[in-house]
Design brief:
With 139 residues, this protein is an alpha+beta fold. The protein has five helices and five strands. It starts with a strand and ends with a strand.
Length: 139
């Protein structure tokens, strides 16, 4: 007999830095148990933001799935900027190389809706363009 799903939550935490709080309280799970499991699973990704999808069941148990770091965070890190542009079309705030775009696309492939790396690179380049970051070598 399968467990009855009570709630599904999409949250983001610093790798290895999940702590009990209001975001987890709304999920209705055992917060210390989740924090320990999440922190153990993400200790090798220190410094990254890790999106997580938590499936909470009625008996207070849970499952969670880790996702890859958001593309915007990876692009900001690669370009060496603190934030994207407020007006992306008028103000370019940074540049990344085509190789760096490919590296980000290969890392993000499991979470992107793309069949090959070139399509994933176009998605990453579009995200970069919307942030005011130019990708050298792409129109």
């Amino acid at each position: 007999m399968s467990k009855k799903v009570a709630k599904i939550c999409k949250l983001q935490f610093q790798a290895g830095g999940a702590r009990p709080g209001p975001a987890l309280a709304s999920a209705g799970i055992n917060m210390p148990q989740f924090c320990n499991a999440f922190n153990d699973a993400t200790k090798d990704r220190a410094g990254d933001i890790v999106p997580v999808i938590i499936t909470a069941y009625e008996d207070k148990s849970f499952d969670f799935v880790l996702k890859t770091t958001p593309a915007s965070v990876l692009i900001k890190k690669a370009a060496g900027i603190k934030s994207g542009s407020g007006s992306a079309k008028a103000n370019i705030v940074g540049k990344i190389s085509l190789e760096k775009c490919r590296e980000i696309a290969e890392y993000k492939m499991p979470d992107l809706n793309a069949n090959d790396v070139e399509a994933a690179m176009r998605i990453i380049a579009g995200t970069a363009r919307n942030m005011g970051v130019a990708v050298e070598g792409m129109e």
